[in-house]
Write a structure and sequence with these properties.
The chain has 8 helices and no strands. It has 206 residues and is mostly helical. It comes from Streptomyces gelaticus.
């Protein structure tokens, strides 16, 4: 628990900015694994991605001792959509929710410093959700790693948007309402599937 408390102090900051966290939790080893998995030599980008994802997870985990806040397949966009459903009044248009606008601000950020601060704001809201809303922090780390490479940034931004829209489709599917029915909000046509038929490597509704 003491190490989690130390990690929380780095949430929303850059790697190596908090001297107390230098070397904690084998973050360098995790960064090396991320870099190796992508077959590149961008170790500094990997360190930033792993540090940010790990410290956000520690912040998210605070006061949730009974349940882990890491869950494979739980996307950032999907978590924001679920949070809207929990916090906003019934009948509120998800597209007009201030929570959706927070996600858009992450997607439109131009610096990693801004991304870090805006993600911290979202994670604080997820932490206090009426029902637990965990995240796939390994997936988020991979997205943050790719985001730092300018040619891949637009793809990551599209993934966050797709995650948000696909969560609505999955919700309608569970309720028995057919996607595309009259009155439904549809996926932005500019956020279509990739060439392999998936959305950012994830199938629809996953």
């Amino acid at each position: 628990m003491a190490e989690l408390a130390r990690l929380r102090r780095g949430a929303g900051k850059r790697a190596h900015q908090v001297k107390d966290l230098w070397g904690v939790g084998a973050l360098e080893d995790l960064a090396a694994l991320l870099e190796e998995g992508h077959g590149s030599d961008r170790l500094e980008d990997a360190e930033e991605a792993v540090f940010l994802a790990s410290t956000l997870w520690a912040l998210h985990q605070q006061s949730r001792r009974d349940q882990g806040m890491y869950a494979k397949g739980r996307s950032l966009g999907g978590a924001v959509r679920s949070l809207i459903r929990q916090k906003d009044s019934p009948g509120t248009d998800d597209e007009e929710s201030p929570l959706r606008k927070r996600l858009v601000r992450v997607g439109t950020a131009e610096s990693l410093d801004s991304v870090a601060v805006r993600l911290r704001e979202i994670v604080l809201l997820l932490r206090t959700a009426p029902e637990p809303l965990p995240l796939d922090y390994a997936r988020l780390a991979g997205q943050l790693y790719r985001w730092q490479h300018r040619p891949e940034r637009a793809g990551v931004q599209r993934e966050w948007g797709r995650e948000f829209h696909l969560a609505a489709i999955a919700s309608r599917g569970r309720s028995g309402k057919a996607p595309g029915a009259e009155g439904d909000d549809a996926i932005d046509p500019e956020l279509g599937a990739d060439e392999d038929g998936t959305y950012g490597g994830y199938a629809a509704g996953e």
